[in-house]
Design brief:
The complex is a heterodimer of chains A (557) and B (361). Chain A is built from 25 helices and two strands. By secondary structure, chain A is mostly helical. In chain A, β1 and β2 form a beta hairpin. In chain B, α4 packs across α12, α5 packs across α6 and α5 crosses α12. Chain B starts with a helix and ends with a helix. Chain B is of the alpha/beta class and 361 residues long. The radius of gyration of chain B is 23 Å and the shape is globular. Classes of the chains: A mainly alpha (557), B alpha/beta (361).
Chain lengths: 557, 361
């Protein structure tokens, strides 16, 4: 009896899951692709061939590829280095440092790019300082084009690598490392043979994600592009030019690009499986370390931390300046509290803030309900249904946020069976749905990292000791994967609060999020006010993070 | 134990929320489904939803006045350059009642696509024929000049360009910054320049002009604030923008900007208003169009937000500087409406930064 009920329960779960995944991810994508090959009801490849035979467009495709590859390399080096440093070298203020290192995730891209321009742009504070210091005739660097875009992406997106590698490192078996060391293995040897295999799944997961977000990056190329065109910005322009067919062709190219990279990396990952030790011993800080290496590490980490924190400091500093001085001076010094006073005096403030928090919570909650069972099932047994579900959930990885938004608009601006006969565009639900779709791969991958690091022997042990399956899940599996799952959930939550690209495409009168308020003020020449909004978002994100940390003090995200 | 509790809490909470979210979504959609689809009844609704390109300050002020007069609550959002796109994509299930702002070429296009409901406001008869649709589907309520300007700390009046044609001169190389192609005023301006130069010198000359202009442009900005900051900090001296924005930055932000009355005329857009077809609140929509286009409101936003009225009655009560007209560029808006999509695509793909792109190789 119980067995049948249980099976019926899973069947129902699968039915709902596939209904949602097909309805909200697959169908909208196919619907958009259809438009790339459909002109006035006729199937044609003309739009597509015209597009890729224009050398200007080929250049755009090549540019996009460079941004994606550059993002993976830069974020990978920075994120992994920081994770290694935080795990092995950092001693004091570890928790505070960890929280600070997560900060770039919390700040909406638009605000951080403005802060970067204020610091490193042609009239930036640092640019002018270097110019004056070395008495240069010309600006020391051009904060535009590929290097500028990569710089911004690196310092806003290294968090994927940093978090995933940090979680992966928790499962490194240090007793084995100690054993190897006592047998005379050098640092390089230990890194290549022991650490690297442990963090490889995390590296690959992060690389796929970073590549997709790199080629899909919208805000950085849009704001500081300086003639460097990429696909994601051109898609939005084609759409604005009423050329949905061209936009769809661009979407297709972007999609193929990231799917190929994802398949390639996953193939590589399958070729290099590794076995976990039965009972990993955690890293114990013994206080001994070689001075030179840790000094070098410390200096590098300090520089990185400084680069990460500078834009945040800049946003806070600018929020206390008048718009006049921000627009006119290299180093604004007209201090005022007016920006905050105006925000507090306006009715339009708290509503967007509440909207953003509510919708972020909905996205995290819905995402967890869908991804946690799938991660668990995938790890328990490899069925066709579950791997299909995983593949479907990972598709949004390969889709820039603007593409997901456009797909949703095209699919749900008409009444749809998948929305139970409703048209969703303009209503409340569509934006949380969009947030949830982007959250799925992130949640799934952090669940997977946690799940892969979970030692299956433990569950077998509970079973052989007579525990039922559900008891085993409840008391053994969930507590063990909780750190990884929670780290993904927190990341999604703080990232969604200030999300801009999806919000701009899908928001309506009933769910205006805070990022829109911020950008609207920016557009209406109240830069100071939008900086003050930025500070509020940062503060709220820190509060959310502190709350979660307090809820579970033993929690190590 | 604690870890377990946290996860249980998260999962339980998430399920409740997911359910609540479903419930909320359905409720909202049922509500809209229950609305009478198009049949206007005598009954006035208590809300009107406005999609706009105008700034929040201005929308809030109009909303407050409208609410005070009629008791109808205004829900508004500023969708900027994406406005037309949004109204189009909600065609099957309109959420908004009124579209407020955007140039007449766009309104003509959307009327053809059957997106508007005709209205007949009292002041329609007083409006010059060039500012309204002959069948009453849309009305122009604001004149929006797009004008050349420069930073007067960097250039003297003699050094400054006198006309659009001057912008391609070698001395202005790297001296011009503008908005990018997602700005609705930039889009209109480019279309006007193509239309104007095509008629003056032929289409090839028009594209040559735009390419030469592109070569002199230092940067295309996605954000108006960043563009003005570049002019303010002296990274470039010359730009063009909507007149009311130039004045906002002159007056509110104290920037040293000088306006150029171009010899071949400035681009003058007509910002329009229209009621949306099959809107959820059709009567409130008509009432809002009536109100927002009235001479009283036109004069109010002329004085408070530097928006130039289209009604003569409103112009009389407007600031002094609006009485003297800047020269308007002679363009054919019907031609622009018919060609804008193709022109903008061509400009986007093969003109903007085309050399810079290929040169970087």
């Amino acid at each position: 009896m119980r067995r049948t009920a249980c099976r019926a329960g899973w069947l129902l779960f699968y039915a709902i899951l596939f209904f949602l995944l097909i309805g909200y991810i697959v169908y909208p994508m196919l619907n958009t692709l259809r438009q790339a090959f459909l002109s006035e009801g006729q199937f044609t490849t003309a739009v597509f061939t015209d597009y890729i035979t224009n050398p200007n467009n080929l250049q755009v495709i090549e540019n996009t590829l460079w941004v994606g590859l550059g993002a993976v390399v830069c974020c990978g080096v920075l994120g992994t280095a920081l994770a290694l440093y935080m795990t092995f070298c950092a001693r004091r203020f570890r928790k505070a440092l960890h929280v600070l290192l997560l900060s770039p995730m919390m700040i909406p891209g638009v605000i951080i790019v403005i802060a970067f321009v204020q610091l490193y742009g042609e009239s930036g504070i640092l640019t002018k300082a270097v110019e004056a210091l070395f008495r240069l005739e010309e600006t020391p660097w051009q904060f535009s084009g590929l290097p500028g875009i990569l710089f911004v992406i690196t310092y806003t997106q290294y968090v994927y690598f940093y978090l995933n590698v940090s979680v992966g490192l928790k499962y490194l078996d240090y007793s084995a490392v100690e054993a190897a060391r006592s047998l005379g293995a050098g640092r390089v040897r230990i890194f290549v043979d022991m650490i690297l295999p442990t963090i490889l799944p995390a590296l690959i997961t992060s690389a796929i994600m970073t590549f997709a977000s790199g080629i899909g990056a919208y805000t950085a190329p849009n704001l500081i592009g300086g003639g460097y065109k990429v696909l994601s910005t051109q898609i939005v322009r084609s759409k604005a030019n009423y050329r949905m067919d061209i936009a769809s062709a661009q979407v297709l190219i972007l999609f193929v690009m990231s799917v190929s990279v994802m398949l390639l990396l996953q193939y590589y990952k399958r070729r290099h499986p590794y076995v976990r030790s039965v009972r990993p011993t955690s890293w114990q800080d013994t206080g001994k370390r070689s001075n030179l290496l840790s000094a070098v590490c410390g200096v590098l980490a300090a520089i990185q931390l400084l680069l990460v924190l500078l834009p945040i400091a800049a946003v806070i500093y600018l929020s206390f300046n008048t718009t006049h001085s921000i627009m006119m001076s290299v180093f604004p010094t007209e201090f005022t509290l007016e920006n905050y006073r105006q925000i507090l005096a306006s009715d339009r403030v708290f509503e967007p803030l509440v909207n953003s928090l509510t919708m972020s919570l909905i996205a995290v909650a819905a995402g967890l309900v869908l991804t946690v069972p799938v991660s668990y099932l995938a790890y328990r047994r490899s069925g066709r249904a579950v791997s299909a579900a995983k593949y479907l959930m990972m598709i949004p990885w390969c889709m820039p946020v603007s593409v997901i938004g456009i797909n949703l608009i095209n699919a749900f601006n008409v009444r749809s069976v998948f929305a139970l006969g409703q048209a969703l565009i303009g209503g409340y639900a569509i934006l949380p749905i969009g947030y949830t779709i982007t959250a799925l791969p992130l949640l799934l991958s952090s669940n997977d990292v946690a799940m892969e690091s979970f030692n299956p022997v433990l569950e077998e042990a509970s079973k052989s000791l007579g525990a039922s399956r559900w008891y085993g899940i409840w008391r053994v599996v969930l507590p063990n994967i909780a750190p990884g799952v929670a780290s993904g959930a927190i990341l999604v939550f703080i990232r969604t609060i200030g999300e801009y690209t999806m919000s701009a495409l899908l928001y309506g009168v009933y769910n205006r999020p805070i990022s829109i308020s911020m950008v609207t003020n920016m557009q209406e020449f109240r830069v100071g006010i939008s900086m003050a909004y930025g500070v509020i978002v940062i503060a709220v994100s820190y509060l959310a993070l502190a709350l979660v940390l307090k809820l579970d003090k033993r929690q190590q995200i | 134990m604690k870890k377990k509790n946290l996860l249980a809490l998260l999962l339980a909470g998430s399920m409740t929320l997911a359910l609540a979210a479903c419930g909320g979504g359905n409720e909202a959609s049922q509500e809209s489904a229950a609305q009478p689809s198009s049949e206007p009844t005598a009954e006035m609704e208590d809300t009107v939803v406005v999609y706009s390109t105008h700034g929040e300050d201005m929308l809030d002020e109009i909303a407050a006045a409208f609410e005070e007069k009629t008791g109808i609550k205004v829900e508004s959002i500023n969708l900027k350059g994406e406005l037309a796109d949004r109204v189009r994509s909600e065609k099957e299930n309109p959420q908004a009642d009124v579209m407020f702002g955007g140039d007449s070429a766009t309104y003509a296009l959307l009327k053809e696509e059957g997106l508007f409901e005709a209205t007949n406001p009292e002041w329609a008869g007083d409006l010059d024929a060039m500012y309204k649709d002959s069948e009453g589907y849309w009305y122009g309520t604001i004149k929006t000049p797009v004008m050349l300007f420069y930073n007067s700390d960097l250039l003297s009046a003699e050094e400054a360009p006198k006309d659009w044609a001057d912008l391609t001169k070698p001395e202005y190389q790297g001296q011009i910054v503008v908005r990018d192609s997602l700005s609705s005023s930039m889009r209109s301006t480019v279309c006007c320049l193509i239309d104007y130069y095509t008629r003056e010198q032929g289409e090839e000359a028009a594209w040559d002009y735009l390419s030469a202009l592109d070569a002199n442009i230092k940067n295309y900005y996605n954000s108006g604030s960043m563009m003005y900051a570049a002019v303010g900090k002296g990274e470039a001296a010359i730009s063009w923008a909507v007149l009311s924005d130039i004045i906002t930055n002159q007056v509110d932000n104290g920037m040293p900007l000088e306006i150029v009355d171009a010899t071949s005329g400035s681009v003058v857009l007509t910002d329009c208003i229209a009621a949306i077809k099959d809107a959820p609140h059709p009567n409130a929509a008509a009432a809002f169009v009536e109100f927002a286009g009235s001479a009283e409101v036109q004069a109010m936003i002329a004085n408070d937000f530097n928006r130039v009225p289209t009604l003569d009655a409103a112009l009389a009560d407007s600031p002094e500087w609006m009485q003297t007209e800047y020269k308007a560029m002679d363009v054919d808006w019907n031609n622009i409406s018919a060609n804008q999509s193709a022109w903008l695509e061509q400009w986007e793909t093969n003109v903007i930064d085309a050399d810079k792109n290929l040169a970087s190789e």
